[in-house]
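Workshop exercise sheet. Pairs work together: one partner reads the sequence aloud, the other fills in the structure field after running the prediction. Swap roles for the next sheet.
Pair: D.N. / O.F.
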Amino acid sequence: MPRVVGIDHLVLSVGDFARSKEFYRKLLDFLGFKRKYRKGDIGFHHYAFELASRNDVDALGAFLEEHGMTVVDPPGEYYGRSYYAVYFTDPDGMKLEAMVYKPPPKQRRAEKKK
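Structure field:
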């Protein structure tokens, strides 16, 4: 299971608590988070989870699709070969991102010749 390696904390406020609670329960359980509490009005424009690998980004992309969550941009390279991400939205339409920022694994010579 992918593990987030780059968020210290965040506070998120939502428009429909029951709807968002179910969305975030699924998403954050998959990423290894625990839910805390609810506060205030609709918040952030978007935020990004930093994951450990491209495989983790791909796994999250598959998880989102399997659960009928809205994927805006599928797992892939964005902003160059070092930035690999998936973009999706929560039930309020807030843009979320999961990404890894490091060069892709190098191919061995035998793999390049194929």
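Discussion prompt: Residues 82 and 103 are 4 Å apart (CA to CA). What would you look at next?
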